[in-house]
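Narrative of activities, Objective 1.

The group set out to show that a structural description can be obtained from nothing but a protein's sequence at a throughput compatible with the screening campaign. Below is one input-output pair from the validation batch, recorded exactly as produced.
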Amino acid sequence: QVQLVESGGGLVQPGESLRLSCTASGFSFSNYWMAWVRQAPGKGLEWVSGINRGSASIHYGDSVKGRFTISRDTLKNTVTLQMTTLKPEDTAVYYCNAQWGAWEYWGQGTQVTVSS
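Output recorded for this entry:
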């Protein structure tokens, strides 16, 4: 059974940090491109960051570049998003995404709220 389980969301104040984790199971994690995608209230999906199977290729959306860091641990089947200097506009449900060719999986999402 394929699962992507996100954790680490919560309520933080502007300027604070948060660390999201996604634990994968039921598929060959090491083969997959992993990404974080978010959806703010009333808006569409926004791609946040992605990392390839060997962690050699990493990309960030313009809105998070310099503030967020993505990493993966193939031994633990996890992908992490370290978020710093959070802003109210970072408020969204954050989804973990796995892609390999025609195969694609999504997690259930974790809520991040940035508010004073």
